[in-house]
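Researcher: Good morning. I'm working through a list of sequences from a screen, and I'd like to move beyond sequence-only analysis. For each chain I'm collecting a predicted structure so we can compare shapes side by side. This is the next one on the list. No need for commentary yet; just the structure.
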Amino acid sequence: MNQFQTEGSRTYYLKINRSENFRIQAINEVGNRIPPEIWKPYLYFFDKQSFFGLTSVADGLDLVLTPADFVRLFQQEPHHYVAFVGQRAEDEAWLGLANKVADSLNDAALWDHVSVDGDDIIIDSSYGEADIRSFLSDTIRHQLTQKGLTPAQLPYLQHFVQQAGWDGLPAADEYVIAVQLSEPDSTPLWSFKVVLRSKRGAVYWTPSKRRADEPFDKVLPEKWRTHAAEIADKQALILSLCPSVERFNEDRLFYTEWTDAEVLEFLRNDAEILQAFGIEVSIPSWLKAVQEAKVRVKANVHSPVKKASVVGLDQIIRFDWQFSLNGHELSMQDFQQLVSENKEFIRVGNEWVRIDSNLLLHLRKLIEEAEDADWTIKDMLFQNVPEIILEDSVDEEDPLIEFQLNRSLKTLLDKLLDKRDLPETPIPENLQTELRPYQKVGFDYLVFMREEGFGLCLADDMGLGKTVQLIAYLLHVHGKSPGKPSLIVCPTSVLGNWQKELARFAPDLKVATHYGGTRPKGEDFTNFLRIDNPDVVLSTYGIAASDAEEIQGQHWASITLDEAQNIKNMYTKQSRTIRKFKGDHHIALTGTPIENRLSELWSIFDFINKGYLYRIKQFQETFMIPIERDDSEEAKEKLRQRIQPFLLRRTKKDPDLQLNLPEKQEQLEYCPLTPEQAALYEGLVQDTVQKMETLTGFEKKGLVLKMLSKLKQLCNHPSLYLKEPYSSAAEILPRSQKLERIVTLAGEIAERGEQCLIFTQYIGMGHLLQQAINELYGHEVPFLTGSMPKQQRDTLVAQFQAGEFPIFILSLKAGGTGLNLTAATHVLHADRWWNPAVENQATDRAYRIGQTQFVHVHKFVTIGTIEEKIDALLTQKQTMSDQFIQSSQWMTELSDDELKDLFTYTL
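Model: Good morning. Structure tokens for this chain:
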């Protein structure tokens, strides 16, 4: 019996799924799912921290919990007569783990094993089991997030949390302990001290200066003297949260004096930490309202070169500097004096203002560097000014540094931002295809940005050939001389695509695939790269994250992230790990650089040009909040201008591209089998090949056709072959890369406002697609089959043509002829037919008279299976008679050896 189950209690069986957060469903004794609003009150019965569940988050039938909430709620019995138990063994394991993690969080020894590395919270291997350490790290991170703190601040909290816990100091009945910051009086120094007040009073008490050095038990008023030891302990814990306080006398009420700079450091760091743990902080009211002084610099930028045509990125530029403080003009001498005085707070006219002395120092350093180091146009355009300067330049109409360019410089920068007149790079001779004009621009841009030392995001629309542009770039990089390999990280579902496309367009490149259970690890990986010396290493996001040590140990010639939206969630371990990879050139390929939130764009830019879009907190304040909350056009334009040099985005609707595109593009989408599919596939083939040896010619033909159907269903999804019912998208998608890829692609097409047709030969496959797309994307997807009445069929066609739904699934035979579906710009063939004419007829539902848009045809093929071999055979037979190709019997005429080769699964 689970620890939460008691005799005679009501029982809820929990199904627990974990990604970043926990998603929990409750099932009653008869197997029905129960809405969270019914069982949630029992779970939160004793939980004051969430106001007894008031702040909880429900998503349909799921209750969503952070790791910290999960541990807090399940570390003890939530309710005295309601029991929560795991439905499955893994659910019970999660509940047990919550208890263990809770014990660890309350273990003072834990903090002797905790350290911080950048954004990572590390618990060394000597403490507990690996799953507990991982869970603890996530829980600590969420505790920090809930308090508005970051992992970088954790070292200052450890002693406090170790002694007092995350909820902070317990409230005393008779007094309140606080910290007070007081402005300078007769000296230029501020006073900072620990003070006391009565529980209901507002006046702070502190000893007089003559008694400041007396110990607690002598200086405290009589009413608090019995609490002397307790007050001393609380003071020590409070001051442990203040990085600004290095040491103090534990027997005395704390008092010290600070300079302006020390006060500013306290306000920036210590005050936030203290308030996060509920410590009362008192500062002068005028200091709360003090305005930041507006120091502004105007730089008239000019080039000695008069003609724009000869100005290049490496052209040295000159500056004429002008300064102002809150609108008052300053000479260079006045500015230098402000920097030298190093004051944080000064009086300007009748008001107090704060000057960021560090900012002034950076400004002076910037000016000196610009004068001494001979800045170039490249320095100004891409590096711009140091990040500390950029972070304060949030007001485009009143920027910190205003650069005024002369005409020749402005002309050059306009060309660069528009990607016009880029330096021409010869297309590698061994590229086995021709680049379209816009693809040549993309290739030139890739090479240009590499030579200038800046990462980029190639964000062309789906179907415009990001892959072939990157392959041409790789041939250019690796065609000069042998050297470091390039790394490509992609989703597992398109790994086969990359293998095939590289082999097709760049057979001279030596490609290695870092994937599978036999891949080299540790030193073997390093030795493999040194001995085998590949030009390109292909890997997947999952493998790259799990083999981070091996990949981070290499410095790559280039690192490309395909479908780069896979690192969109900046907080996941996978995203944080991959963003740390190091290469000479970082490239992101994605047709959707922003799917839902601007933080996804930040994550991609953090990979290609770390720090360019500021730290995430500043990015949120500067762009995310104004754009996502306030829909600020000004902020949108500012962000567009900022990312424009590093992002190349073309869509199929661009008029310049329509002239260069075919009206229809067909593309093979290669998908590997999962281990489950591969095992079933090989078992079925072995059984059937043995039977074939004992059959007559007519019987063998029947067996071949039956075998063909089973194998093709198995290539689609094992549940079709095993006759299993639909469960949920979370359970069925990982079992078939093809199904997952089709569902994802269809969802992306619909999210972009486009429409697509999905053709399949199998009713079961259509239902899997219907249910998964509806569950994940919320689209009701009609499925047109041969049994559908004509009136209903005609209604659905009219609705699709009117744009009332974005995705239409059709059986290949029932929907392959007689329909006009020109609203679709994508056609997805889920499974291959041995008769290409049937596929072409289906494609022509969208690609026909009346179609005014570019049509992209995706044909899904599982690697190493009968689907890939049929595709190769059909390609070979294109020169033979149409009658032979279109016969559905040609496959049964193959010899036994040919059939065996056709059916055999090959990796």
